[in-house]
Fold:
Amino acid sequence: MQIWVDADACPNVIKEILFRAAERRQISLTLVANQPVGTPRSPYIRAIQVSAGFDVADNQIVRDLQPDDLVVTADIPLAAAVIEKGGHALNPRGELYTRDTIRDRLVMRDFMETLRSSGVMTGGPAPLAQSDRKAFADALDRFLAKAR
Structure:
């Protein structure tokens, strides 16, 4: 099992949690992004820079993903593709997507997109709070404990 990160939009505090987890548990962690991503020197951590373009990083993750790998992403369509391929998806706020929950999240995403395209201001997600960081770290620990 390895961990993949949709790194373009992943908050730095979440990356730091992932770096520590990869070192502590000696698990391969790969960050995929359209731009350079700084990583600590480690045999367990690497970054892949893909070309710019819509969903290029997402497509790279899905292409290289193996069943039971974990992907950290807030991107709902990417999470759905990961689950479809047999992987697991965890968002930076600590929500582990499942086959049951991802459908509802896709419907809500599409609904919000329809509202935005019709001119309704929906706002963005709230800033990442300390409670979100803790929820993510706890969810990651639970997942890794089960995966071993």
The chain is about 45% helix and 15% strand. The first strand starts at residue 3 and ends at 6. The first helix runs from residue 12 to 25. Helices lie at 12-25, 56-64, 76-84, 99-117, 130-147.
